[in-house]
Design goal:
Blueprint lengths: L5 E6 L2 E6 L4 H7 L23 E4 L5 E3 L10 E3 L3 H16 L15 H8 L24 E3 L9 H9 L6 E3 L6 E3 L16 H5 L5 E3 L3 H9 L4 E6 L20 H11 L3 E4 H22 L5 E2 L4 H10 L13 H17 L6 E7 L3 H5 L16 E4 H10 L21 H4 L6 H15 L17 E8 L2 E9 L4 H14 L7 E5 L17 H16 L10 H11 L5 H7 L12
Parallel strand pairs: 1-5, 10-11, 10-13, 12-17, 13-14, 16-17
Antiparallel strand pairs: 1-2, 3-4, 3-5, 6-9, 7-8, 15-16
Helix pairs in contact: 8-10, 8-14
Length: about 575
Amino acid sequence: MEETKLVHLEINGIAVEVPAGTTILEAARKVGVRIPTLCHHPDIKAWAACGICVVRNATSPKLLRACCTEVAEGMRIITHDPELVKIRKSVVQLILTAHPNDCLRCPRSGNCELQRITIEFGIRDVPFPRPALERIPKDTSTPSIILDPDKCIKCGRCAIVCQEMQNVWALEFIGRGERMKIAPAADVTLNDSPCIKCGQCSAHCPVGAIYERDETDKVWDLLRKTDGFPVVQIAPAVRVAIGESFGMKPGEISTGKIYTALRRLGFKAVFDTNFSADLTIMEEGTEFVSRFTNGGPLPLITSCCPAWTDWMEKYAADFIPNFSTAKSPQQMLGVMAKTYFAEKMGLDPAKISVTSIMPCTAKKYEITRSDEMMASGYQDVDVVLTTRELARIIRIAGIDFANLPESEPDSILAEYSGAGTLFGTTGGVMEAALRTAYHLITKEELAQVDFTAVRGLEGVKEAVIDIKGTKVSIAVAHQMGNVERVLDAIREDRKAGRPPRWQFIEVMACRGGCIGGGGQPTLATDEVRKARMEGLYKDDRDHAIRCSHQNPQIKRIYEDFLGAPCSEKAHHLLHTSYKAMPVYAK
């Protein structure tokens, strides 16, 4: 194994030793020096767009951009001096000349990287004239995210994320000079572009140029209705991330606090999407075992991620027969609330409204994607709020979230197994499914339920699982840019006339899965994602029941209402279908 070469240099007179290939920005952080940036993000390659991170080498008059300049032996880097501070301040002021002065009305106010840097530099005025440019209208065409080009600072993060991380190519730079803007190719609307509504552009935007469609007013209206019965569900990944908005550490489990906050807001029933994740496993696991043992299109591919299903319908329609027809946990809980819960409680389903708290902007799109999302006779889920939107509502309501007591959810549609909570992380759906598939195939219970081979942030994970002599080959892919090579491998197998190399594949569109979703608190890095993942693994370990098929409430809903997994009634209520869609809307 080749030994890593070390480079020796000084940063502000402090000796530092770092591996070759380290950037000046990274080296400075090792000795506690923070160089300001706007375009840099650890998820994407540095491309020196903003120019705020300039530093100097004492042996050269040339200014260097710290984010993309690698260290060299003997460098004597100066990161802060009066001239560098003046240059950086001027760069920020130039950015501000073309930026709207409407911070009070911006969804990122108080959590804006440009605002933070402006405060740090003590900028109170801008000495440069504002260019006389026409305002660019907002793009409000999708149900999930809004693009406000006027607020764009040309950092390029969203375009790089969309193109390289997600392999979607819905955003790019259009035009030149002062009139350059971020928009879909050919300047069409987002809804007419290849956009899959994953929201990774909004999660990586440093300002308020791209953000989730705010539907908090809809929720306030539902809570005010005197003759309505508002209910709510929370997704697995929300419980390990929302605390970040209130000063808590990433990964800290706040499930009980969320239940309390939702009751104080006025919801009449509080459910948990982890319950319907268990329900999804019963349907999807049964579907897999049927295909695996009786013959059917393999590999079976998971379908609980709406950004992924949107991508598949646009780019990989040849895999539609391989898709699980099981609805996502969000949709399953919605339909159960307006059928099973309504029946049990003697409620008129027309008066029940279902609000979902999701880590995902694409969930806003999912609730209207087809008529099958009205299997109850009504729209199964009425409104979706992201984790960020829920945090805003909690603040508006004057709730001190960090100091809330914990409480329990409602007794119907809320009890969950450890497997249900794993849906929030990459590999979690697969791990939960394998726990139950083992039981469905062998009629026995697993002694060791942890499938660690599917965990972690590697883009594609593969494993062969031995189920009492039956080999099941699986793959797990997350972050859309990693998915196509998995699909291409299956296409190669088809072309060569070989059986598929995997029988079961899990796909999640966002890096890390739902814990890194487009609606989660911003500024997530892999360190933050790992902490959120560990929070979910802890929630799983802390549960006495760790397999979906062991959940007593799941058993009851089949006995009382659905009959059996994949029964005719279950199929009508809990399953959906897919069709090929054009990449560009016609």
